[in-house]
């Protein structure tokens, strides 16, 4: 069909372009033969495939395949991002719910084993010492003048020595057993503060509360004057609180308040301290602590005030 149309068009053009009497039958036949030969070449090239066209088609196919791969990768990353966001939101919701459950504080959903804790005593592990009670009732400023360098532990607690070694003396380097070498000969240097703090937070978000506890303890002992030390004490308290170790949690929250009395986490640390006291059965001390919230933190956020109000209701204040 294509050949027929081309021949017809060429014949018409030749007949119009030159007078009929000036062209011989032989010249016309030669021209027609040339056109037929050219058309045959075009048909052969079309059937065999143009190398340039084939190259372009292959390139288009490759680009299409790459686009499909990138689309799949984007969808996978989006799904994983949604999963991570859901896990973080679930952890935050569990942290907010754990104190609202009827009957007190039972830790995270699934119990301590689900949080990575092993061998954690969920019962009352001793009360705070009298210095801590006085500190709560007299306020943060007065507490700083008495017993600032004393770790808050129960002298009758069988785990007091281990807890003191783990949390360290507030404002002082950790104690070292007699005869143990000091400095670099005893242990390798701690990682840089940002790396150590970030790793501890990651473990906390992952539910590895035991690992987060170790890292936060290392941070506060290695960098007692760092800008994040107050926050580190607060998050250390959270690692104890979620496992119902209310005495250890109270120690850490008190240290957070001493490190940064006006810090970002200070209002929440005070509320958590009251929650820890309530979990230990010291409702009166918990209420006394919460009574100081408004005067101690007049500019606290609405969220912190709401948490303080909820804790007051739970404690029966």
TrEMBL record:
Pfam families in UniProt: TPR_6
Name by which UniProt lists this protein: Cell division coordinator CpoB
Major localisation: periplasm
GO cellular component, one term: outer membrane-bounded periplasmic space
Gene field: ybgF
NCBIfam families, A to Z: tol_pal_ybgF (TIGR02795)
Subcellular location: Periplasm
Chain segments carrying region Disordered: 98-126, 165-194
Lineage, uppermost ranks: Bacteria, Pseudomonadati, Pseudomonadota, Alphaproteobacteria, Maricaulales
Keywords: Cell cycle, Cell division, Periplasm, Signal, TPR repeat
InterPro entries assigned: CpoB (IPR034706), CpoB_C (IPR014162), TPR-like_helical_dom_sf (IPR011990), TPR_rpt (IPR019734)
Biased composition (Gly residues): 101-110
Source organism: Maricaulis virginensis
UniProt GO BP: FtsZ-dependent cytokinesis
């Amino acid at each position: 069909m294509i050949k027929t149309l081309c021949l017809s068009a060429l014949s018409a053009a030749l007949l119009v372009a030159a007078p009929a009497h000036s062209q011989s039958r032989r010249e016309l036949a030669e021209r027609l033969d040339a056109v037929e030969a050219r058309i045959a070449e075009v048909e052969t090239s079309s059937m065999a495939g143009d190398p340039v066209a084939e190259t372009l088609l292959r390139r288009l196919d490759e680009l299409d395949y790459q686009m499909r791969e990138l689309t799949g990768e984007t969808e996978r990353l989006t799904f994983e991002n949604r999963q991570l966001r859901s896990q973080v939101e679930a952890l935050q919701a569990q942290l907010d719910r754990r104190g609202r459950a009827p009957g007190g504080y039972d830790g995270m959903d699934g119990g301590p084993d689900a949080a990575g804790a092993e061998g954690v005593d969920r019962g009352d592990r001793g009360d705070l010492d009298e210095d801590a009670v006085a500190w709560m009732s007299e306020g943060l400023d007065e507490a700083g003048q008495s017993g600032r360098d004393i770790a808050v532990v129960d002298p009758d607690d069988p785990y007091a020595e281990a807890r003191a070694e783990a949390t360290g003396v507030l404002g002082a380097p950790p104690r070292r057993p007699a005869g143990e070498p000091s400095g670099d000969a005893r242990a390798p240097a701690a990682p840089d503060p940002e790396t150590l703090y970030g790793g501890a937070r990651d473990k906390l978000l992952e539910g590895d509360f035991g690992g987060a506890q170790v890292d936060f303890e290392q941070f506060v002992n290695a960098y007692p004057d760092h800008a994040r030390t107050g926050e580190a004490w607060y998050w250390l308290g959270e690692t104890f609180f979620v496992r119902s170790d209310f005495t250890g949690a109270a120690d850490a929250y008190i240290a957070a308040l001493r490190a940064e009395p006006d810090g970002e986490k200070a209002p929440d640390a005070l509320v958590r301290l009251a929650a820890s006291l309530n979990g230990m059965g010291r409702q009166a001390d918990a209420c006394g602590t919460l009574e100081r919230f408004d005067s101690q933190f007049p500019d606290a956020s609405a969220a912190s005030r709401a948490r303080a109000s909820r804790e007051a209701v739970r404690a029966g204040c």
